[in-house]
Amino acid sequence: MKKSIVALCASLLLTACGTGTYTVSSGKADEAMISFLSDSEEPIQVTVDGKDTYEINTVKTQEWRKNPKIKKTAKNTIYVSSGKHTVVVARREKDGYYSTSMKTKYEHKVFVSAQEHKMVELHINK
After folding, report:
1. Cα(107)–Cα(87) distance, integer angstroms
2. What is the predicted pLDDT for the residue at 43?
3. Any residues with CB less than 8 A from the CB of 92 and at least 6 apart, and which?
């Protein structure tokens, strides 16, 4: 009798284990990140592949060199698909006393792979 109770409990425990098919999806997202470094934090306009335009601020080079993993870059990051992209950076400059216009300061082809965070250093002369 004791053996049959132990066998019954053991069979209940084994059947209580989760059996079946589970679908698990893992891996990295197919996106990359681009951030821009400058001597000072300033607003820029970034156009990616001539169609997507972003208004962001640059990250100060000095702060980034001290701590490359600073959280500040998260708000100054553009998320793009992996691959080759044409990036155009423009900055607002004064033409006169009141009028301002956007002047292209950087135009380059950038290749980024999945989950890569590319830091583009801008040398903007004032």
Report:
1. 6
2. 87
3. 43, 45, 100, 101, 102, 103
